[in-house]
Amino acid sequence: MEPSRPALHPHHTPSLFLAILSVPLLLVLCYGWYIWRSNLAVDGALLFSLLAITIYLYEQNTQVHAEKKVCIQDYKNLEHKFAVLIEHSNDAIVLIDKEGTTTYASASIKPILGYSPEEFIGTSPLQFIHPDDIDTAKKNLLSLIHHPGKTIIGTNRIKHRDESWRWIEGVATNFLDDPTIDAVVINFRDVTDRHLAQAQLEESEEKYETIFNLVPEVIYSISAPDGKFVTLNPAFESITGWKRDEWIGKPFLELVHPDDQASAKEQFFKGLSGDPIQRFQLRIRTKAGTYRVGEFSSVPYKNENGIVGKLGTARDITKEKELDNAKDEFLAIAAHQLRTPLSSMRWDTELLLRDTRDDHVKTVLERVNGRAQKMAKLVNDLLSVSALTQGTVEEHLQIADVKTALEPLIEQIKSLSDQKHLTLHTPFSTQEALVRVDPQYFPTILENLLSNAINYTPDGGDIYIQITTTSSEVQICVQDTGIGISPEDQPHVFEKFYRGHNANTLSAQGSGLGLFVVRSFVKRWGGDVALESTLGKGSTFCIHLPIAKGSTV
Amino acid sequence: MSILLLIEDDNDLRGTLKELLQQEGYEIQEATSVDQAMTCLQTSQPQLVLLDIMLPGGKNGFDFLESIRKDPKTKDLPVIILSNLDSEKTVAEKIGIQGYFVKANTPLNTIVSAVKETVKK
Question: How many helices (DSSP H) and strands (DSSP E) are in chain B?
Answer without folding.
Answer: 5, 5
